[in-house]
Write a structure and sequence with these properties.
Glutaredoxin, globular, single chain
Length: 114
């Protein structure tokens, strides 16, 4: 399993703690330090709608200009924005065998998927 996120994000911290206690072995990918590639984002967008993958509740989205927000109208424009600003991605993203199993974190969703 791979967990994608940012280490100082409180939701990512909760997910990492939970995984450490309940799931055992997983790898963590800090997408601020290790930039996500275009192919991975394309794959994620084939698995989940772009509207769910962009975190509109976060500070990064709220700090975008109205024009930047309005420019995100499709999976392609969302992908371009997420490549430029990885903090726009809803976190954490939990991937198992190449498939997104959880987007965000709740204990209930992790228990159900793992």
């Amino acid at each position: 399993m791979q967990l994608y996120g940012i280490p100082n994000c409180s939701t990512v911290k909760k997910a990492r703690d939970w995984l450490g206690q309940h799931a055992g072995d997983y790898s963590f990918h800090d997408f601020k330090k290790n930039v996500l590639n275009d192919a991975l984002l394309r794959d994620w967008l084939n698995q989940t709608p772009w509207e769910k993958l962009i975190n509109r509740a976060g500070m990064t989205w709220r700090n975008l200009s109205d024009a930047e927000k309005a420019s995100v109208q499709s999976a392609d424009s969302a992908r371009q924005m997420m490549l430029a600003k990885p903090s726009l991605i809803k976190r954490p993203v939990l991937v198992k065998d190449g498939k997104i199993v959880c987007l965000g974190f709740t204990e209930a969703s992790y228990k159900a998927q793992l």
